[in-house]
Amino acid sequence: MAASPGVAWAQTKKTEKGDKVRVAHAAGIDRNGVLILIRGTLLALDQANKTGNYTVLRDLGSPNFQANSAAGLGDIFSNQRKQALDFGAVAVLEPQLTLLPQIEPNGMLHMAGFFPSVPMQVNFELLFEPANRQWKIYGVSVNLTSGSPQAPDTPVAEQQKPDDAGPPDAPSMAVSPKTKTKP
Prior knowledge:
Elements: E1 12-14, E2 20-22, E3 25-26, H1 31-51, H2 55-60, H3 70-76, H4 78-82, E4 96-103, E5 109-115, E6 120-131, E7 134-146
Antiparallel strand pairs: 1-2, 3-4, 4-5, 5-6, 6-7
């Protein structure tokens, strides 16, 4: 997968003082490329957690990521390994992106999202650094949360009704007035 490091510096914005500041902008990467990066990274992490061997994960990373030793990565992800977390669902489920792939001002590709699975949902945030004309792992954050439907924070009775609410729906069954019967 080819990286476009030059694109990372193309977007600038002027501040109120007139200074130019680099801003994040949409990444020019197709859907398949995004899926390959997400799945490849998370499956490599899953296999590293299952085997306790983080050398492949380390070797897939950028030179800055490789500054971590395999043992150091093992320490970083030890909680996930101890909990025997399984990220296998990322191989077959479609990720839902909460942060579309964008190039950050520092030139890194950044994206975040989740895999909607039940009972646990895999949440991720990933950073990739351009190295040797490819996007290489720079940062990985993964956790599991409940994948079941969540109740709203505010009880329904306390929620505000919209001002433009129309009349209520008609009853679902016929209602007729009661008539008095004479004894």
